[in-house]
Design a protein that fits this description.
Number of strands: 34
Number of helices: 12
Strand order of the largest sheet: 7-6-5-9-10
Largest sheet: 5 strands, mixed
């Protein structure tokens, strides 16, 4: 991970047991993105509200440095929080540099974090456990009796004691103390409303710029005032309608890694800034632009592989499914934590599926065709030895949580199946994949239970949607043959997709929602990893239900007037697929479940494959 992760809980004293409140990524004063919205590493977090003018807040920095060093080695992440909009970012950064703060200080000039945690003083500390619940809030220690009254000896280390207790799995003996320092003031909003430099830039840089910059998938950059101000009304519109940042699963069930919900305060910020005429503000408030790894969202890959030669996509005709065999130069077995797929030609690449082949079967199929790769309908044309996931439009690369990985046998080939759709002119593509390994050797990693990740899928192939049908339903079910742990889920439909839900009914009758997508968006398909992977016992029935809209009222309907649509892999065909990423206490249970599900899928009724309805 490139930045610490934090889950924030509503920490009013009477609500210590409340569920964690989703929050947004923020910048620290150096311009680094700190992803506050998750805690998949299950770390204990401590953070302290600080100010630049309060003498007690200034005096506590050496002690916080000691705590950051002492507990950082035990996995605790300690943050300072600066929330004073009357002080410029440049002044705040200079202050904490002069006092040699050795911990990140979060840039909270918009007070979004302060609104969640509600400090009364600076300094004031809050500790959250791995589940995001408050376990302590108040003074750092008893160094100060009151303003101007400093003790000769520090006898009580409240924050240190709380951290030690929670790391030991205990409840702190003292869960709350009265903070001693300067009152946390709440000055009236600045005249003229929010500005770009003070209020909007910290949100845009932390939430938008990762995609909205040169070389990434977004259609325009958002890296400075001019680029953002010219689109102020548009930003207000798409954030208020929750179209941006893109995130299609509904809330209210299992939390996913990297949820992109905007807080209501952030939505209001964009609206107020646009209404005020998008003022720029004081240059001294502007945070530095975050530094992103060049070209790779997850940082430099451990291994980068590319199609061995370009492939030509014809100007018209049916969609193309082409498999490309790429040798993987690995001298030992590996566990793969993540892949990052880069389409060589975004105009024609629709999706990618990455198979593994440890027997050279793909090479034989490739050698039998004159063109690069080979074409075959459905699958890779052989039984793969594994898979590394895939990519589709809108996908965001992420590492598997908790040190998990997919097995990669040394000497294997990557068989990259690409789905192309013609654009009306001849195009070429040569796509690339970055591969990220689990840091530990395979033998060592697999000594830990629930480390090996595999995937199975559920599908319904009996798709026949009449023209004009606005609420066409399809479903399918599968019963788990072994105990497994759910790691992630990947729903997939095409342009007529309307909604999808996946639910699990446990043997005792308990039901869990695995994912709920109430408004499917073909342009924002993604892989969703659970922040807290959870067990499902043998005998659990998984039900997949989806609805499709083939009416003229569906703005995504590619046919006007609507046409009958059947199952198929072409862009204008339709699908109901859902992939499930699993692990288990015993690796053999993962393998057994995968092969069992494949056998069950082979028994699924299949309608005769019609001619592709892709554009010519």
């Amino acid at each position: 991970m490139k930045a610490p992760f934090l889950i924030l809980a509503c920490v009013l004293p009477l609500m210590a047991s409340a569920a964690p409140v989703p929050f947004s990524p923020m910048l620290d004063l150096s311009g680094r993105i700190v992803a506050l919205e998750q805690n998949d590493a299950r770390r204990v977090r401590a953070f302290v509200f600080l100010g630049t003018e309060c003498p007690i807040a200034r005096s506590c920095i050496p002690e916080l440095n000691r705590l950051a060093a002492e507990f950082g080695s035990r996995g605790v992440e300690l943050f300072g929080v600066w929330s004073d909009a009357t002080v410029t970012r440049v002044e705040a950064a200079k202050h904490f540099a002069e006092f040699k703060a050795a911990f990140p200080v979060l840039h909270d000039s918009g007070r979004a974090l302060a609104e969640v945690l509600k400090p009364s003083h600076v300094p004031e500390a809050v500790v959250l456990n791995a589940d995001g619940s408050q376990v302590y809030r108040g003074a750092i220690d008893n160094a100060w009796e009151a303003i101007g009254q400093r003790r000769a000896n520090v006898e009580k280390r409240f924050l240190a004691d709380a951290l030690s207790a929670v790391l030991d799995g205990k409840v702190p003996a003292i869960a709350e103390t009265e903070a001693v320092g300067c009152l946390f003031e709440k000055p009236e909003p600045a005249k003229g409303g929010p500005t770009f430099t003070r209020d909007v830039a910290p949100v845009v840089f932390a939430r938008c710029t990762n995609c909205h910059r040169e070389g990434q998938s977004a259609p325009f950059p958002l890296t400075n005032f001019a680029q953002t101000a010219k689109r102020a009304k548009q930003l207000s519109r798409v954030t208020e309608k929750r179209e941006m940042p893109p995130w299609v699963p509904a809330g209210g069930h299992e939390r996913f890694v990297g949820e992109r919900w905007l807080m209501e305060k952030e939505v209001t910020l964009f609206r107020d800034w646009a209404a005020a005429g998008a003022p720029e503000g004081n240059a001294a408030d502007l945070p530095p632009l975050p530094q992103f790894a060049e070209g790779w969202l997850l940082g430099k890959p451990d291994l980068v592989v590319k199609m061995t030669e370009p492939f030509t996509v014809p100007a018209d005709g049916p969609d193309v499914l082409q498999n490309f065999v790429i040798p993987l130069p690995t001298s030992e077995d590996k566990l793969v934590a993540a892949i990052e797929f880069h389409a060589g030609n975004k105009r024609v690449v629709h999706h990618a599926v990455l198979f593994l082949d440890d027997k050279g079967q793909g090479r034989k199929l490739d050698a039998a065709t004159p063109e690069p790769g080979y074409s075959i309908f459905g699958g890779a044309g052989f039984l793969p030895s594994g898979a590394l996931g895939g990519w589709s439009v809108g996908n965001t690369p992420r590492r598997l949580p908790g040190g998990m990985g997919r097995y990669l046998k040394k000497g294997s080939d990557l068989v990259m199946q690409l789905h192309y759709h013609p654009t009306g002119r001849v195009e070429t593509d040569q796509s690339t994949v970055g591969i990220y390994f689990v840091d530990k050797p395979v033998a060592e990693a697999l000594k830990q239970p629930s480390t090996l990740v595999g995937s199975f899928w559920m599908a319904n192939y009996e798709m026949d949607i009449p023209a004009g049908e606005a609420n066409y339903h399809r479903s399918t079910s599968y019963t788990l043959p072994r105990d497994v742990t759910m790691v992630g889920i990947v729903p997939h439909m095409h342009l007529l997709g309307k909604s999808m839900t996946a639910t699990a009914t446990l043997p005792d009758g308990t039901k869990r929602t695995l994912i709920d997508v109430p408004r499917w968006n073909y342009n924002w398909q993604d892989e969703y990893y659970y922040e807290r992977p959870f067990p499902l016992p043998k005998g659990t029935r998984i039900d997949l239900n989806a609805a499709f809209d083939n009416s003229a009222a569906n703005p995504a309907n590619p046919s006007s007037p609507p046409k009958r649509v059947t199952w198929g892999e072409g862009t204008l065909d339709e699908m109901l697929f859902c992939f499930f990423l699993i692990t288990a206490e015993k690796s053999e249970d993962v393998v057994h479940t995968i092969f069992h599900s494949m056998a069950q899928d082979a028994k699924q009724p299949r309608a005769p494959r019609p001619p592709s309805q892709s554009p010519h």
